[in-house]
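Please supply some protein, with fold tokens.
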Amino acid sequence: MNSSISIAIPFALESELWWTGNGYTETWIECPECAGTKAITLVQGNGQSVSVDCAACSMGYQPPSGMIKQITYQHTPERFTPRRVKVDGDEIWYSESGPFESGYSQVSAKSLFASKDECQNACDALNHERNIMERNRDINNLLDKRKKMAWSAHYWGRKLADTQKELETIKARLSVCQEIKRQAKI
């Protein structure tokens, strides 16, 4: 049995379309956690204050910078002329590159529009949605880093207390050894 399947593509090649684009800006702002001071003071459950490096404005293992990167999405309608189409499962992709060019980027048909007004409405919705997601991600990162800073302050505070206790034990043992040695010389 030989059957052929026909798939309708939403836009004709070489037509004038509008694309939502990839617009965003990255700006560096003062760290909201440390107010640019690169350190914060944690108050532990026992009331003790501990100053620690700010993890919110530290990138990887780098020291704190006092600044964080903030991404703001600014999709705006961009002209798009499709010259190539690709069907991948239930997704339809277009490219402005010609059919014989080897390097090209693809744009989903879902982000293409026949009118600039339709595209602007989609850009506005996309900007709103992505900016909310970005702010939520920023908040989650900040909360996660707060937990790490609190854990770090607790860990190093406990380590200090344990080391001081161990030092007292060492001093006591050394004192006993010195007394034995002194007694042996008499």
